[in-house]
């Protein structure tokens, strides 16, 4: 059959009219995603309310715990000769004793440390007059002025601790125990449990401090063994180290040992240090030789490391050998990881110079970096032996690793 033009137009119009509802329906289906579809129950209302979408919280990273970082500062022998307390007396016009100016150039570092240690070489007993060598006695105001300078831990275990007998030692314990901010180590009262060691908690890190002496000038190592721990008393030493290891994160051993006026540790010092490493000490602070001695790290078979200072030397004194007038004041970085692991870093050793003019007048302390050639040239010790900045540098270079030393001028 032939279709004319009119028939064709009519047929096409009918096809379009038949397809139109389907196209409209298809467009409506694409315009509403499935998750936004209105439930059938809501279709009875004149206007369906849109569903409220649940907000997905923004992703946030969980902050990893950070390690705890802090510093321990240590000073050697606070050796108060008679000229030192006499000058302290003069500063007040005879109205007491002012030792604080001795330490003022170092006070910033001491106060900035999280915990600071010092060996108090001399007894403090105000029931007797002050005295110098050989039986030392220092005015007890020294304790509060050490605290004011920023020290926290005061060791009494040294060869002068019985210079005034047991009553002098007990008086010193009273002074330290009665001074806010100070903790005593190295001496015990009669009847005290010597395994109850000194603990200090700083920034969530617990330190244990123990103090031992090789001997005293009164009775060697035989007297008052219930109140003093000597370096040959291994049952007590081992018990203290075991208690310290159990209760603390960081174990610090103060030990007064060695040979006076030498810069090299003897075999007994080295053997004692190795044993401290085996017993779990983290840091050994040695003193007594009145001169600086080497710094080294010992490691046992299990990988435990111990930072050892064989001798910090004098912190302050009025001795007359040039090498007695240079000491170490190390600043030791310590880190506690989130898992509790302790790391002791390389120390930064500030060299400290005791300066005095002729006749030991105007005695004071300088950090090496503030000490000048003109001061060294005018040092009163030049009357007894040569003293110079080059000599100080040579002493330190020959004794201590240069990587540890804060450089001078």
Topology, element by element:
Blueprint: H1 5-30, E1 68-78, H2 82-91, H3 100-103, H4 107-112, E2 115-120, H5 141-149, E3 153-155, H6 165-177, E4 183-185, E5 198-202, E6 205-213, H7 234-247, E7 250-256, H8 267-278, E8 283-287, E9 295-299, E10 305-309, E11 314-316, E12 326-336, E13 342-344, E14 348-355, E15 364-367, H9 373-377, H10 389-399
Parallel strand pairs: 1-2, 1-11, 2-3, 3-4, 6-7, 7-8, 8-10
Antiparallel strand pairs: 1-12, 5-6, 9-10, 12-13, 12-14, 14-15
What does this structure look like?
There is one protein chain. The chain is an alpha/beta fold. The protein has one domain: Metallo-dependent phosphatases (Purple Acid Phosphatase, chain A, domain 2). The protein is 27% helix and 22% strand. The strands form two sheets. Strands 1, 2, 3, 4, 11, 12, 13, 14 and 15 form a nine-stranded mixed beta sheet that branches. The chain has a six-stranded mixed beta sheet with strand order 5-6-7-8-10-9. A hairpin with an 8-residue loop joins strand 14 and strand 15. The protein is globular and about 60 Å long. The protein starts with a helix and ends in a 10-residue tail after the last helix. 40% of the residues are buried. The N terminus is likely disordered.
């Amino acid at each position: 059959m032939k279709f004319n033009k009119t028939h064709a137009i009519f047929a096409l119009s009918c096809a379009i009219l038949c397809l139109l509802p389907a196209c409209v329906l298809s467009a409506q289906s694409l315009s509403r995603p499935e998750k936004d579809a209105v439930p059938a129950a809501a279709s009875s209302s004149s206007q369906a309310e849109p569903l409220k979408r649940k907000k997905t919280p923004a992703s946030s990273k969980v902050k990893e715990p950070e390690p705890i970082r802090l510093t321990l500062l240590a000073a050697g022998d606070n050796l108060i000769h008679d000229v030192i307390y006499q000058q302290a007396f003069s500063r007040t016009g005879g109205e007491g004793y002012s030792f604080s100016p001795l330490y003022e150039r170092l006070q910033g570092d001491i106060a900035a440390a999280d915990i600071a240690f010092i060996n108090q070489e001399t007894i403090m007993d105000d029931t007797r007059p002050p005295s110098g060598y050989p039986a030392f006695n220092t005015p007890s105001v020294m304790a509060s002025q050490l605290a004011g300078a920023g020290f926290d831990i005061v060791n009494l275990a040294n060869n002068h601790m019985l210079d005034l007998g047991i009553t002098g030692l007990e008086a010193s314990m009273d002074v330290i125990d009665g001074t806010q901010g100070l903790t005593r180590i190295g001496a015990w009262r009669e009847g005290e449990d010597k395994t109850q060691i000194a603990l200090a908690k700083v920034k969530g890190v617990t330190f244990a401090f123990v103090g031992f002496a090789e001997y005293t000038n009164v009775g060697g190592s035989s007297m008052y063994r219930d109140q003093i721990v000597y370096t040959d008393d291994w049952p007590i030493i081992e018990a203290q180290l075991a208690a310290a290891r159990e209760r603390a994160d960081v174990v610090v051993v103060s030990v007064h040992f060695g040979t006076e006026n030498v810069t090299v540790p003897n075999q007994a010092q080295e053997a004692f240090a190795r044993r401290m490493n085996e017993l779990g000490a983290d840091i050994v602070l040695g003193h007594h030789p009145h001169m600086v001695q080497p710094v080294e790290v010992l490691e046992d078979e299990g990988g435990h490391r111990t930072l050892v200072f064989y001798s910090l030397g004098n912190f302050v004194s009025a001795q007359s050998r040039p090498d007695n007038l240079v000491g170490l004041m190390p600043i030791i970085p310590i880190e506690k990881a989130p898992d509790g692991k302790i790391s002791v870093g390389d120390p930064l050793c500030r060299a400290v110079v005791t300066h005095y003019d002729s006749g030991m007048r105007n005695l004071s302390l300088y950090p090496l970096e503030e000490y000048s050639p003109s001061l060294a040239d005018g040092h009163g010790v030049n009357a007894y032996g040569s003293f110079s900045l080059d000599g100080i540098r040579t002493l330190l270079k020959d004794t201590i690793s240069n990587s540890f030393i804060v450089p001078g001028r």
